[in-house]
Fold:
Amino acid sequence: PATGGSGKTLPRRCWGVGLEGMITGFFMTLNIPEEDFVDFLVYAKRNAYAAEEVKHRVHPALPGSRQYEIRDGAFFYLDIYFGITYFTGQETVYHKSKPIWGMSYAGGVSDDFPDAEAGRIFNFLKESLRAVSMGLPYRGPASFENDIYRYTNNVVGKVRRFSGTETIFCEGHSVYQLHYSGGFLR
Structure:
């Protein structure tokens, strides 16, 4: 039986015929193990925006945007965003040309932090994002730090449906924050 967000069983009239097997059998329908998807997602995130050298940035499809693309076998990753010190974007993963997973995000440097100094924050952010793991494949790890900055990532949910907030602190002061949410497309 289908369950609502509370985990309680929903009456059949709320979920209709055929939905039950569609959700639980999502990966069986695609014929891909969930681990293969997460492995690709982590690879793509480490090698797109967060990469130390820019290899996968492409000419953007939309004016004023920045875009990264990564292909590996049947998987294709697309990250497109607008803005620099405050930005909004969308990541999408395709399998055999079908969009199967997406994540929207928005955030940036605090208003009281000088834009001219934002480069140091974004270099640290990229370092944090390269530490993404199979267990938390959304943004960066739960926490990461160096001598000046501390990154935190608080997420609710699993890769199928999630939301979270990442924050960067400098000597205890929040200097950057981003909210994100996403999951598998049905």
Strands lie at 57-58, 65-72, 75-83, 86-95, 98-109, 143-145, 149-158, 161-170, 173-184. The helical segments are 12-15, 19-24, 26-30, 34-47, 118-129. The first helix runs from residue 12 to 15.
